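Blinded run. Sample ID left blank on purpose so nobody reads anything into the name before looking at the predicted structure. Input follows.
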Amino acid sequence: MTMNHQWSAARGALASITALGFLSLAACGNGGNPPAGGAPEPGTTDRERTEARAYTATAGLPPEQEAFWERLQAHCGKAYAGRVVDVTYFYEDALADREMAMWVMRCDEDRIHIPFYVDDNRSRNWIITRQHDTLRLKHDHRYPDGTEEAISQYGGDAPRPGLPTRQIFPSDAHTGAILPDRRDNFWFFDFVDDDTLQYGVHWRRFGHSVRVEFDLSAEIEPPPKPWGYETGEAAVPDELSDEAQAFWDRMVSHCGNAYRGSVDDATHYYRDTVAASEMVIHFLECTDERIHIPFHVDDDRSRNWILTKVDGTIRLKHDHRNPDGTEEDISQYGGDAPRPGVETRQYFPADAHTAEILPERADNFWFFDFIDDDTLQYGVHWPKAGHSVRASFDLSAPVETPPLPWGYDD
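Blinded prediction complete.
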């Protein structure tokens, strides 16, 4: 839980997002074959078949999380008053004697939206969603005009299975990116008994914590709708953030050029299969809304990075083609960059389509990072398995453009 004015210093930490480079973003391997842009078809080797079977066995929410979900859903439409019951000195001045309320405003099949009110501040929203195999908590913060705050969408996924009455949510990669000093935070919801729900956050690094308790036995009148949701779902921004637009312009400035690259960091899982590969990227086509970058590995021309502007952010998709131009079965995976990113770096957590076609890699994220004027890095990280790979491309030395990628050579 955060207070707006407490984040004023933290917003400055956005400039540190580039520190995520050390994560050495992880790719998805394919046995003895080069990985298809970081995510090959699963089950192609004995090892991957074993991984896929193990993950499939855990698909779906465990009974404990189903029970917790149903318990929250039972309160849909109801609002309750709350109060701080435990707080360390770091939060005490900001939270003492504040009026608090929560409203289980909307419950869908896979999403619960709970605005959280502190005095007259209507900026805070807890968004709990059902993922492939767990629950996810995100904190959605809005300005009075409905636009999203810079510090927003932090949270994480609950470790399985948790308890029917309690779920905790450790910080995810996005949280670590926008709030690097709080990447060890975790949040929780705890039904202490039938009449009491507690919400809290613990900042382990510095020992700071706060816990708010809501009285479920005494329903109150729902407060006004939260900022940005007065007429339904929050408005989606039309334009990129300044940081994302600067990143986009930087990519477009290389249009028409090709650059050689090499793997400069890879975990053992991929080291033997990709380290010696010859790599070239080609900024083939750039428009106001779309950038097409074929990624060639040796003589394989199957891979394409497609960047598009969508709903106020940048979307990355990996477009994979067979030699005859038809699309591969494992294709169009990727995701949308959290706003705002920084002008030299954008990263892309796996989206719903990725989780559907590659469920064991639903926590992947990809990134592009302009380390300096002469170096662009691309990589992917697979947190659940700890696998990663990163390639660097030398922007100071354009090379001859390679043949067009398969499917785009007409």
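Unblinding after everyone has recorded impressions. The longest strand covers residues 208-220.
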